[in-house]
Amino acid sequence: MESMKNVVTTKEIKSYLNKSARRIWCAGCGNGICMGALIRAIVRLQILRDKVVIVSGIGCSGRASGYLDFDSMQTPHGRPITCATGIKLMRPEMHVIVFSGDGDIAAIGGNHLIHAARRNIDITVIVVNNQIYGMTGGQVAPTTPHGALASTAPYRNIESPFDICKLALAAGATYVARSTTFHVNQMVSFIERGIANRGFSLIEVMSQCPTQYGKLNNIGTPAEMLLWFKEKTINIKRSEEKTSEEIRGEIITGEFITERRPELTELYSQLLKRAQSKRSNDET
Amino acid sequence: MNKKKSNRLFMLGNEACGAGAIAAGVRFFAGYPITPSTEIAEYMARELPKVGGIFIQMEDELASMGALLGASAAGAKAMTATSGPGFTLMQEFIRYAGLSEIPCVIVDVMRGGMIQPAQGDVMQSRWGPYGNHPIIVLSASTVPEMFFLTMKAVNFSEKFRVPVILLSDESIGHLRETVEIPDVESLEIINRKKPEVPPEDFEPMSPGEDLVPAMACIGEGYRVKGYSGLVRNKKGNPTSDPEAKDYLTRRLQNKIDYHLPEIQLSQERDTEDADVVIFSHGSVVRPAHRASTLARQKGIKTGVLKATTIWPFPREDIERLSKRVKAIIVPELNLGQIIGEVERWTKGRIPVIGIQKVDGNLITAEDILAKVEEVAK
Predict the structure, then answer these.
(1) I want to staple A30 with a disulfide (CB 3.0 to 4.6 A). Which of A207, B26, B267, B301 is the partner?
(2) In CATH, which superfamily holds the domain spanning B5-186?
């Protein structure tokens, strides 16, 4: 898909922020990069601002809905996709965007993720995956790498992390992509394509949490964490040429699926027509 | 179908609930199957699309509530129905709905075990969620009440922007009775208050004199902030200011108390000269009325206080009666829940005697009559 507008100025980005909100994100956090990428994608798609609603859950990234100047809803922990489902069914003309963290979407909200993907409802989910629970102080997440340290895994994580993209793919999402906070242009274009997809889209963004994950695992400064993403990343097309042993521990980025399948609210409007024509038949 | 005849319908309690919801303007239902409430979901799945409404079966009760509140925040009158175990899962969002003032109606067709009637959710309906939250709980005792109280629940939730619970139980949900449905035009329909100022001047958390803020919905151009489980300031931004927290927590409760005369629904029968009063709600009301009649035939002056709104609790009725009558009997299909509130407001003036049945059978008029006779001795 060709972008309508390529250059997005800082001034434009700032015009999308809720200026009265007090922001709590740490210096060096990846959330701001992801939120900026989301604004860029919306500007580039030239979507009317009042046709966008941002839904988020609980956690550091969950604060984004309140930092942005759109219609918004911050739901209980793990539930943004359920609220987004109700909003989209009521207002099919709106772009419903979920912006939340890995704990919110893949742990407590994992069941809602797979069912929304199965329904192929036109919601775009941006998962900011910092591999840890940041707000509560660095606890192990279902996305924490095997062997990493966390405040509730002081002897290292013995569990294996979820591959959120594969999960969404298997559940029926019609657009799935992964990027990192190092690859901002790529992230913006994936978010654009996710929003433009008429169906369930998921964009996972590997993001840095220097305050918790970085510190506990001795990775270094925010800039070093970003460079670590650069080094650890392999594109999906290149990864297909390698053995699973060769890409162990690598972050696979790129688009996992771009597919067209009937979308839930489109199917529902057809259902309404069927129910109402049956009704008029019954009455005559 | 003949139009005049359609006003008098022989219906299942659960169907009457669905019909009441649609009459009140409910156009969104999200639910998850659970006995003995499932007929409500089935009714809505069949009937809502005919009026352009939305039905969705979600993956669990957490998700049902989420979809409900998303739809309500986007402008729909929204309802769900469940039973005890599902009601437990909904508590998280009930608190959220209370705090973010998103109107919604939750029907809980109570059960004990799988299919027996029970009243085990009386305290859960008030105190299920954590923290402080406003709530209105109505209790239906007949099939016609399932229709009219569902309407009332929708109207209350819209007017006060508060979650409203309608309690019923298996014996009402699965009972068939005739419901006289008045002309649609004569039914009172209340819609949520909308902002009267342009978006730039709108403060989502500033209430009117009635302590209820106007509600801007998603998709109406207001860029709504403030749908959140956090404490928020007037602009809808999260805050940890103690004053703001105190103000919000108290306002949410005060808005219920302020409207108490309108919200508090109860009926009394034969209480004027009564020595013994039976406090009842839900499926206990019918045997209570019967027991009262039988007791009077035996010369015991007995009356019935029927609580239709059980939360907020009808404390004024109990305070007034406890200054006049000699005893209050509280039959319940649980081990004694609402009796604690009755005791609280009689303040030790008179004996409060419970009848507690938990074997899955209904409380009978004979059960209550035996207790009335015992008390009157």
Answers:
(1) A207
(2) Thiamin diphosphate (ThDP)-binding fold, Pyr/PP domains (3.40.50.970)
